[in-house]
């Protein structure tokens, strides 16, 4: 007797799709989500494959090749020190994109933990946490980042820490409000009655219900974090020479805008595409993950 089990097939003879594949197909029918995903994936592949796309060292100078316009040898031209712009833009994209991702991940983790504790515990502990959050929110974000960076000193790591601190209260506010609403629902009370401790309740019953909002906010703030990382690099408080980064490259090129337009155009285009891509991705995820938005 043949005991081999086969998946049910439709009229075309193909195996039926799993719920996950159906959900993914439905999600990627959303134009913003599909377009944002394509843009972000293409940019990520370009910066990851930089060693195979260009043979030049982004920090290597060549006095005989300064201000070379775009050509077959240098598709994005060269800068004031004869460095290949394509190599600098691609390698600099690694720094900007990874730094932006690190910012939102660190801010999301810290802010989510604070929001969960404040929303679940309430009382004096929740009041103290949220007043600290309000204090951080009272300062304009970029000014607070500049102040923290000035205290810690210039550098990419210090810039990431500074911008992460700015995002903590944003996540904490979101998660605290959602946690207070979920805390009063019957299934949470049932878990407590059955003996679940506070940590288990927050991790098992509350956190999964707020993760969709956290994910959407993370994609939305990823573009803002890229702008702030670039801004710190532009004014010299972020990445230090000769390491390439989109903000530092834009700062190098702004003095030669009329002489060598490619020094600002190409990093500006890549930065703009990245911000557009993550914003489209965030809009699409919001529409797909938010149950209150009708199809």
Could you explain the architecture of this structure?
By secondary structure, the chain is an all-alpha fold. The chain has a domain at 91-289: MetI-like fold, CATH 1.10.3720.10. Helices cover 69% and strands 0% of the residues. The protein has eleven helices and no strands. The chain has helices at residues 19-27, 31-48, 50-53, 85-121, 123-137, 141-152, 156-183, 186-193, 198-234, 246-253, 262-289. Helix 4 (85-121) packs parallel to helix 7 (156-183). The longest helix has 37 residues, at 85-121. The protein is elongated, with a radius of gyration of 24 Å. It starts with 18 loop residues before the first helix and ends in a 6-residue tail after the last helix. The model is unreliable at 1-18 (pLDDT under 50).
Present the secondary structure layout.
Layout: H1 19-27, H2 31-48, H3 50-53, H4 85-121, H5 123-137, H6 141-152, H7 156-183, H8 186-193, H9 198-234, H10 246-253, H11 262-289
Helix pairs in contact: 2-4, 2-11, 4-5, 4-7, 4-9, 4-11, 5-7, 6-7, 7-9, 8-9, 9-10, 9-11, 10-11
Keyword list:
MetI-like fold, elongated, 295 residues, 69% helix
Summarize the structure.
The protein has 295 residues and is mainly α. Helices cover 69% and strands 0% of the residues. The chain has a domain at 91-289: MetI-like fold, CATH 1.10.3720.10.
Q: Count the helices. How many?
A: 11
**Name given to the CATH homologous superfamily of the domain at 91-289:** MetI-like
Structural class: mainly alpha
- Give the integer mean of the pLDDT values: 85
**Uncertain runs:** 1-18
């Amino acid at each position: 007797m043949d005991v081999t089990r086969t998946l049910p097939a439709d009229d075309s003879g193909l195996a039926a799709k799993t719920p996950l594949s159906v959900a993914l197909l439905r999600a990627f029918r959303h134009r913003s989500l599909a377009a944002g995903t394509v843009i972000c994936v293409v940019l990520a592949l370009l910066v990851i494959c930089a060693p195979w796309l260009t043979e030049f060292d982004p920090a290597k100078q060549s006095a005989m090749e300064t201000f070379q316009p775009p050509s077959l040898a240098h598709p994005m031209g060269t800068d004031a020190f004869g460095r290949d712009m394509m190599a600098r833009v691609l390698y600099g994209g690694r720094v900007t994109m990874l730094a932006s991702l690190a910012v939102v991940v660190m801010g999301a983790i810290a802010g989510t933990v604070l929001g969960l504790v404040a929303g679940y515990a309430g009382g004096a502990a929740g009041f103290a946490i949220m007043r600290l959050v309000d204090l951080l929110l009272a300062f304009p974000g970029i000014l607070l980042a500049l102040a923290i960076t000035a205290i810690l000193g210039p550098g990419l790591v210090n810039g990431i820490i500074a911008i992460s601190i700015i995002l903590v209260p944003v996540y904490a506010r979101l998660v605290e409000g959602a946690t207070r609403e979920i805390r009063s629902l019957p299934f949470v009370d049932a878990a407590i009655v059955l003996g679940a401790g506070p940590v288990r309740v927050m991790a098992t019953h509350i956190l999964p219900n707020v993760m969709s909002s956290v994910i959407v906010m993370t994609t939305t703030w990823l573009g803002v974090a890229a702008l702030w990382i670039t801004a710190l690099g532009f004014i010299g408080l972020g990445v230090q020479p000769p390491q390439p980064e989109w903000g530092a490259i834009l700062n190098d090129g702004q003095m030669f805008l009329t002489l060598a337009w490619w020094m600002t155009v190409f990093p500006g285009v890549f930065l703009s595409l990245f911000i557009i891509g993550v914003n489209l991705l965030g809009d699409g995820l919001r529409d797909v993950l938010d149950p209150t938005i009708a199809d």
